[in-house]
Specification:
This protein is mostly helical. The protein is 42% helix and 3% strand. The chain has 5 helices and 2 strands. The protein has helices at 43-54, 65-85, 93-105, 128-153, 162-165, and strands at 15-17, 20-22. Strands 1-2 form a two-stranded antiparallel sheet. Strand 1 (15-17) and strand 2 (20-22) form a beta hairpin. Helix 1 crosses helix 2 and helix 3 packs antiparallel against helix 4. It is found in: Cytoplasm, Cytoskeleton. This is Actin-related protein 2/3 complex subunit 3.
């Protein structure tokens, strides 16, 4: 059974840095990301929808630049769940929000950095300006993703959903971003 790919692979006129799509998002955070139509799903919605199904796969055939963005975001969700699951006590929604927001803005490798886990599948940014743009874009996307993830995890109250937390030890493509 094949993995689920991004529906944004066919989007025309999408900016790329390296070989990764810079897709519009619906966000509350200021930053460099293009803004998406609020009535349409964005790459973050798609990542949250596909995470649990795709995290079961060890192999993933990349079919376009949006798949590369999807992979990075799926791996970030894995790191978020691992962060919440590694707490000594079950974090409340407020504690989880703070913890994941900190994880979102912490220093992280991008394609082209020596410690980026998937450099074999990603092209580095063309120059310093592109690399800084990509880092800013991914920081903004990670912040928005962590905010939406907490909303989903704590939808039923003040403890995280066991259905989501059961994926905290799963590794998509047997990889981690190293957070």
């Amino acid at each position: 059974m094949p993995a689920y790919h991004s529906s944004f692979n066919e989007e025309p006129d999408v900016r790329q840095v390296g070989n990764m799509s810079i897709l519009p998002i619906k966000t509350k955070y200021r930053g460099v990301a293009p803004l998406a139509d609020p009535s349409q799903p964005d790459i973050i919605d798609e990542t949250l929808d596909l995470f649990r199904a795709n995290s079961l796969f060890r192999n993933f055939e990349i079919k376009g630049p949006a798949d590369r963005t999807l992979i990075v975001l799926i791996l970030f969700i894995s790191d978020c769940l691992a962060k919440i699951g590694s707490s000594r006590s079950t974090p409340t929604k407020i504690e989880a929000t703070k913890s994941l927001n900190t994880l979102s803005v912490d220093s992280f490798p991008i394609p082209g950095d020596a410690n980026f886990a998937l450099n074999a599948h990603y092209a580095p940014a063309a120059g310093r300006a592109d690399a800084e743009f990509l880092r800013s874009y991914l920081t903004q996307v990670r912040q928005e993703l962590s905010l939406r993830l907490v909303t989903i995890l704590y939808a039923d109250g003040d403890i995280p959903s066991k259905w989501w937390m059961s994926f905290q030890k799963r590794r998509f493509m047997n990889r981690s971003l190293g957070a």
